[in-house]
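In this section we walk through a basic example: taking a raw amino acid sequence and producing a predicted 3D structure, encoded as discrete structure tokens. The instruction is simple. Fold the sequence below.
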Amino acid sequence: MREISNPSSGAHRRRGDHYQLTDEEIAAYRRDGYLILHGVLTEEEMAFLDGWFDHFVAGKEPNMGRDFCDMSQDYGTPFEEWQLVNAMLPSTYRPELANNVYHRISQSIADQLYPEGKAAMDYEQFLAKRPRQERAEFAMHQDLGYWPKTENTWTATFSLALSDSALENGCLQVVPGTNREPALRSHRPKGAASGETSRDDSHTLVIDMKPTDEIVYLPVKRGDITVHDERIVHGSGGNTSPVWRKTYVAAYRDVNTIAQERAMGFTHSHNDQVDWDEIVH
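The resulting token sequence is shown next.
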């Protein structure tokens, strides 16, 4: 188990809303399935996002239904017992967030990672791990296991650190190279093996790890961004620290893939009414 960083990235790479990747980073992303980019957003830019993040995570946005939930437990868990707070599609609920600086910068990076197509933001979410919650875990999974069948699966998922993220508060962990496995691993709803739950009861999916899987931890500082692709095996541990872990996720896919999803009635909202047996891999 290793920790990986990339000290050569940083604010000097940025010009306005454009953050310049190197050829080596693009090659590493395709080979390993992830990147770490340091110092991407300024404190002034982060302050605008902080206010909206806190608004959503405190449960102050009305009428979200299952888009406001605990990603580590079943739907219906009382709010005071939540561990991993999730707010889906924040700019759908609050247009003030649309096309914010994080969207614009991540779009510029996605365009560099996917020059052969046209990338657009597919979905976004706010994620917060409450302090001293050892079970605020994101089970190891592949993002593609959550989504419907589409012709083009290309995805770049961005995670902006709104707080420092380390081993103690459950930083992202990945298994490099699993993005190049020829077949997607089998995913099942958490608790399904014992018949305790189905995907209608809990959004969380899990996979079985292989003995050869080597986990790499990705600690980051506030303002840093990690990027991972749709097939890499990844997750995160619980938060044993006295502070929150706060993350703003935005995922980019090809515009035609997004259109296919929407035609199936799939918007990444947890309120979507879909036949999972029909549309998933």
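Looking at the output, two observations stand out. Residues 192-197 have pLDDT under 50 and may be disordered. The chain has one domain: 2-279. In the next section we compare this with other chains.
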